[in-house]
Design brief:
The protein is α/β, with parallel strands linked by helices. The chain contains eleven helices and eight strands. Helix 2 crosses helix 3 (97-107). It is globular, with a radius of gyration of 17 Å.
Length: 269
């Protein structure tokens, strides 16, 4: 497996793993995270695929952007993939990264061959009351102060608050999360909510003629796990639920998640 140094492409930090001669597989993280969130599954994926991880604007090693509108972020990603000469690609998005992936397929069907959505809430009414620690961390009135004074332990707890299994949070993810600004994070959340409020993800995917894999943790504390079946209405979609897994399947069940992605990327089902 080859590992390549990351570089900035159209405002996004991009890291390559695996052979560049292999079929391309693009991994998109969720809000308040980074490409490092995929660390546990990358070795298995990179054994067969050219894995491309991006840090979305304002996250990880990518600089802030003038806008965090979901379609605009997807357009930036499309420009980066064009510059890298990659098409068609399998795109996997975690949580709100699934919204970027879906918007990319909406805008550029020539780029996207298949879509995998992991823990991507289908619509606003599927959102559950958030864990108390997250409400303290990001909500008014104490959010800005708590955000500025976060310790490494608090950053790790912020990730594990939406997990149902014990996990080892990658050190790189902790460092990347520390660099995300409070205002950026709140703005990203607002734009993510607006995207699925305008049209639900199942409705958007129904209009996109590509194979779709939906993976949900059956114990996700962020999105109602039963909402995974909202995607049953999408043609060419397969829904997989992982027992005992929360919002971060890549961290909580990396082997199962990796196998699902490998099979989907190879067969489209």
């Amino acid at each position: 497996m080859g590992v390549y140094d990351g570089k900035h492409v159209h405002g996004m930090y991009v890291v390559h793993d695996g052979s560049r001669e292999a079929p391309p597989l693009v991994l998109i993280h969720g809000s308040g995270s980074s490409g490092s969130s995929w660390d546990p599954v990358v070795p298995a994926l990179a054994g067969r695929y050219h894995v491309i991880r991006v840090d979305l604007p304002g996250h990880g090693q990518s600089p802030p952007a003038p806008s965090y509108d979901v379609p605009e972020q997807a357009a930036c990603l499309a420009a980066a993939l064009d510059e890298l000469g990659l098409r068609p690609v399998t795109v996997a998005g975690h949580s709100s990264g699934g919204y970027i992936a879906t918007a990319l397929a909406e805008q550029r069907p020539d780029l996207v061959g298949s879509l995998a959505l992991i823990s991507s809430g289908p619509s606003p009414d599927a959102l559950l009351p958030q864990p108390a620690f997250l409400r303290l961390l990001i909500g008014p009135p104490l959010g800005p102060l708590v955000w500025r004074t976060r310790s490494d332990a608090m950053l790790r707890r912020g990730v594990t608050a939406v997990c149902n299994r014990p996990v080892d949070v990658p050190d790189g993810l902790v460092a990347d999360v520390r660099g995300i600004g409070y205002r950026t994070f709140r703005t990203v959340l607002r734009h993510n909510g607006a995207y699925i409020a305008e049209r639900s993800l199942p409705e958007r995917l129904t209009a996109v003629d590509v194979p779709v894999l939906v993976v949900f943790g059956a114990a996700d504390p962020r999105w109602d796990p039963s909402s995974a079946h909202d995607y049953d209405t999408v043609p060419n979609a397969r829904v997989e639920q992982l027992p005992g897994v929360g919002h971060f399947p890549m961290l909580e069940a990396p082997e199962e998640t990796g196998e699902l992605l490998l099979r989907f990327a190879a067969t489209g089902c």
